[in-house]
Structure formats: C-alpha cells, structure tokens
Design goal:
mainly alpha, homodimer, 7 helices, DNA-binding
DNA sequence: TATTGACCTAAAGTCAGGTTTAGGTGTTAC
DNA sequence: GTAACACCTAAACCTGACTTTAGGTCAATA
C-alpha cells in the first residue's frame, strides 16, 4: 500500500495529476481510508502503468476511462479490451513511422547546416541538386520531398 | 505559386490552421497580392514541411517561430539553427524509444487478452508467473515492470 | 498544546493550439 | 447584374489536460 506522495515519486507524476486521474475515473478500485486518504495497491500501480502507456499512444483521458470501466465489468469485455489494445498497437506503430519520417527530415537538415556552416553561408546549399548530394543524403531527401 | 486552398489540400492542413501559422509568424516571407490574398511559393512549402516536422518532434509554436526568425536573420544564425536540429534529433530519438517501450506494454497486453479470451476469463492470467510465460513475453514483461 | 507535514475537496484558473463566427472583398459563371 | 466561390481580418470561442487556490482534516513531533 502506497500513499499518493509515494506514487507521485515512483512514477514522477505530480500529486495533482494523480488526483485528477482519480476524479476522472481512471483509477477504479482505488481505496480510501476512513479519513479519505488514498491507498494505492499493486493493481492501482498497474493501472497507472497502463494509463501512461495509453496516453503515449495518443489516447484521450475519456477513452482511457472507458477502457477502465470495461476492466471493472469483468469477463464479458475481454474481447473488447483485446481489440482496443490491438488498435492502439497500430496507432503506436503509425506514430513511430511518422517520427522516423520526421527524423529523416531532421537528418537532412543537420547535414545541410553542417555544410552551410563550413561554407560560412547558405549560398551553395540553397541551390544544391540531387546529384551533388552524397548517396545516403539523397535517399533521405527523396523520402522527405 | 499556390493559393491557401491548394496548400491546405496538398498538406491536409485546414485553411484556418495555415492562417493561424501565418498570424503566429511561422510563415515568414509569405507574399500577399494587392488584395491581400496569400501566395505560397516553394520556400513557403518547405517551411510548412519543416513546421510539421518540428511539431512532430514536440516543439512548440513559439519556438518554431523563433527558429523561423533565425532563418530570416541569415548567415549569422547558421550554427544556432544546426544546433537546434541536433537537439530535435535527440528529442525525436527519445520519443521513439518511449513509444517502443509503450509498444512493449501493449504487446504484453495483447498476449494477455488473447490468452484470457481463450480461457473465457482472466483467472489464470491474473496470477500468471514469469515462469509460465513464453520466453519472448517474459522479456517484454521484464522491460515493462 | 501548538505547529508542522502530508493528506483532502471543490472550484476556479491556465495554456497551447487551434476553430468558429461575423462581416467583408474580388473574380468568375450564368 | 447577381449569385456563387475562394479568399480576407479580427475577435471570440473551444478543448483537453492539467494546475492552482482556498479552506479544511488528521497524526506526529517540539
């Protein structure tokens, strides 16, 4: 059993955010003692891990809440929950691909500015043609333009 | 030269968003004709590509604006701009790593729910031990917990 | 006993990143 | 010549995800 302060430290999430998640219904089965103080158990910690993961995958609080409500409905929602994770898997994979494309652009720009820095100006680089680029850079450029 | 409507279609960005970027100073050197209509040239399109890329890497509008102002200051900011891209490269790489960690969690959950679905309930899975997991799943689980 | 520290709630406030609205201009299509 | 379109501005509005504030409880320490 952990206090909200301990959980905040463990996950590096502000206390106010944990309370907000609780208020929004993301922390189902979170117990409170007689004076209203939250007591986090292992399954609440697992819920927080899941919340962080679903947030990273781009899911909104209200949809995470819906997922959590399925959890508390038990066996009849197992398939729903599985499908939800399958979909989030696709979402994350798409996000990773997007980021890799952005990384291509950034790598091109890093090369561009490294060259421009050597030249002391952007004259040459502004008008550079595909043929003048090293092979790796050419491939990156094509991916991005 | 492209109209705002054409650019909106090309990039799949709402017209209102393009106008907002212009208002916020992200589209420097964007020309307008005598009656105030925006005319996008190739270098404006490149700016939009860069904006999209920097946004994906997590940069805020106000910082993208600052970058764009460096662009218009010319040669004396080349090193600044290069360093900015080097930093964003790190940011994106960190983001990709985070997403890969989230993907691990999701893959574990996909396996978990596939098993639970077969069983018709979560009893077995709720208490599963490391030893009972297939090797690949065990590795994933360790990465996540 | 009084003060400190960790917790609590409800409600208001904040911030980024747009989007919508209201009212207007200029050019082409019937 | 009038209607339909694509564009314009300024300003208000919206949404999600928190964060801050104000006022209060409770247990342990000085």
């Amino acid at each position: 059993m952990y206090s909200i302060g301990e959980v905040s430290e463990m996950f590096n999430i502000p206390i106010s955010t944990l309370r907000y998640y609780d208020k929004e219904g993301l922390l189902i089965n979170l117990e409170k003692d007689k004076s209203g103080i939250r007591k986090f158990n292992e399954s609440n910690l697992e819920a927080i891990r899941v919340i962080e993961c679903l947030k990273k995958s781009g899911m909104q609080i209200k949809d995470i809440k819906e997922f959590m409500s399925w959890v508390s409905e038990g066996n009849k929602t197992i398939t729903k929950r599985k499908n939800m994770f399958l979909k989030q898997k696709e979402n994350i994979e798409a996000k990773i691909k997007e980021l890799q494309k952005a990384l291509n652009m950034i790598n091109y720009k890093c090369w561009y500015y490294t060259q421009a820095e050597k030249d002391g100006n952007e004259k040459r680089m502004k008008n550079i043609t595909l043929k003048e680029m090293p092979k790796e850079i050419r491939e990156i450029w094509k991916n991005v333009h």
